[in-house]
Design brief:
Belongs to the bacterial solute-binding protein SsuA/TauA family. The chain has 331 residues and is of the alpha/beta class. 46% of the residues lie in helices and 15% in strands. The protein has two domains: 31-114 and 217-330, D-Maltodextrin-Binding Protein, domain 2 (3-Layer(aba) Sandwich); 118-214, Periplasmic binding protein-like II (D-Maltodextrin-Binding Protein, domain 2). It has helices at residues 3-19, 45-52, 55-58, 71-79, 91-98, 145-156, 161-164, 176-181, 194-200, 210-214, 226-231, 233-252, 255-262, 271-283, 295-307, 317-320, 324-330; strands at residues 31-37, 61-67, 85-88, 105-112, 118-121, 136-138, 166-168, 187-190, 205-209, 220-225.
C-alpha cells in the first residue's frame, strides 16, 4: 500500500472517530445551572426525579442543587447571584416586586399546586377545629407561604390565628420539628416527611391537611431574575422541558417507585416514611402535572396573602409569571 493510500485511510479513520458520540470538538458541554431550594422535602419530588432519572442531563444541563433553608435566604441567594434558579414560594417574588425591583423575579415553572403542610395534634384526637382555641400552636415564619396558607385555612373554620391561638413563631424553620418533638406546642404545622416521622415516634398525629383546606395555588415554583431568563432563554426552556418529563413520570408512577427514585436525597429517612409521605401528596394532588401557573391559582395566592395582611397591592399574573416556557414544554 502506498503512502497516499495509507494517509487516506488515516484521514478517514480520524473523521469517523470525530463523528462518534463523545469524540472530537463537536460535542457541546453541559450548561451549568445552580438551583437553590427553600428546603429539602419530598414535597418537591418532581425536582429530585428530574435529577435522579437524568432528565436534566438529557437536556444538556449540569444541575447543581443546594438547600438554602428559608424563603428569605433563598431569595437573597437568587438576587445576589449565588444561584441561577430558585425553588421557592412565589410570594417571595411578590415581596421583591413590592419593593420596586428593577430586575423583577419571574416564576416560569410550577412544581407544587397546594400547600404542603399538615396539622399535627399531640393528643391525636379526631379534629374539632374549636379545640384549637386557646391551644399552643407552633406555627411557621410570619409572611411565609406555610403560615399564610395555614392562617387562611384556620379563618375558614372561624379561628383568628392571632386572637384565638397561643401562636409560637419565634422558632427557626429548620428547628420546628425538633421543638415539637421535645414538647413545645399542642399543635404544629409540618411538611412531610417530618409529619410522618412524628407519627412514627408516637408524638403526634396528622389530623388535617392545609393543602386540602386552602385549595389550589402556585405554592412552589422555579423562578429566576428577568435578566437571567432573557439572557438564557434556551437554558430555561431545556430546564422546563426536563421538569415536564419529571412531572409526567411522577404522575405515572406509584409512591413506592417515586420513593426508590428520590431515596438518595433522603439518606436518613426510612423508606416506609418516604412512601407514606409521597402518597399523601399524590392523593391530595399536590404535585403539579405540568409547569403552567394558571391565573386562577395565582389569584388564590393573592387572596391568601391579602387575608394575611402581607399584600400592599395585587401583583397581576402577567407581571410576575412567564408561562411561555411551560406552554412549549407541554407541546
Amino acid at each position: 500500500m502506498n503512502r497516499k493510500a495509507i494517509a487516506g485511510l488515516m484521514l478517514a479513520a480520524a473523521l469517523a472517530m470525530a463523528a462518534l458520540p463523545g469524540c472530537g470538538a463537536g460535542k457541546e458541554e453541559a450548561v451549568k445551572v445552580r438551583i437553590g431550594e427553600v428546603t429539602r422535602s419530598v414535597f418537591y419530588a418532581p425536582q429530585y426525579v428530574a435529577l435522579a432519572e437524568g432528565f436534566f442531563k438529557e437536556e444538556g444541563l449540569d444541575v447543581e442543587l443546594q438547600t438554602t433553608a428559608g424563603g428569605d435566604k433563598t431569595m437573597t441567594a437568587l438576587l445576589s447571584g449565588g444561584v441561577d434558579v430558585a425553588l421557592v414560594g412565589p410570594e417571595t417574588s411578590i415581596y421583591v416586586y413590592q419593593q420596586g425591583a428593577d430586575d423583577p423575579v419571574l416564576s416560569f415553572a410550577q412544581v407544587t399546586q397546594t400547600d404542603g403542610t399538615f396539622l399535627v395534634s399531640r393528643s391525636g384526637k379526631p379534629l374539632d377545629w374549636n379545640d384549637l382555641k386557646g391551644a399552643k400552636f407552633l406555627g411557621q415564619r410570619k409572611g411565609g407561604m406555610p403560615q399564610m396558607a395555614g392562617e387562611f385555612a384556620l379563618k375558614k373554620h372561624g379561628i383568628d390565628p392571632h386572637a384565638d391561638l397561643d401562636l409560637i413563631q419565634n422558632i427557626d424553620f429548620a428547628n420546628i420539628t425538633a421543638a415539637y418533638a421535645s414538647g413545645t406546642g399542642d399543635y404544629v404545622q409540618l411538611f412531610e416527611p417530618q409529619a410522618s416521622m412524628i407519627e412514627q415516634e408516637g408524638k403526634g398525629k396528622v389530623v388535617a391537611s392545609f393543602g386540602v383546606e386552602s385549595g389550589k395555588l402556585p405554592y412552589t415554583a422555579f423562578m429566576s431574575k428577568q435578566s437571567y431568563i432573557e439572557k438564557n432563554a434556551d437554558t430555561v426552556q431545556k430546564f422546563t422541558d426536563a421538569l415536564q418529563k419529571a412531572q409526567t413520570w411522577v404522575k405515572e408512577h406509584s409512591a413506592e417507585d417515586i420513593a426508590d427514585a428520590v431515596g438518595t436525597y433522603f439518606p436518613n429517612t426510612d423508606k416506609a416514611i418516604l412512601v407514606s409521605s409521597i402518597d399523601r401528596y399524590k392523593q391530595q394532588g399536590s404535585y403539579a402535572e405540568n409547569p403552567i401557573i394558571d391565573e386562577q391559582e395565582w389569584n388564590n395566592l393573592l387572596d391568601v396573602m391579602t387575608s394575611a395582611g402581607e399584600l400592599k397591592e395585587r401583583a397581576e399574573h402577567g407581571k410576575l409569571v412567564d408561562n411561555s416556557f411551560a406552554e412549549k414544554a407541554g407541546k
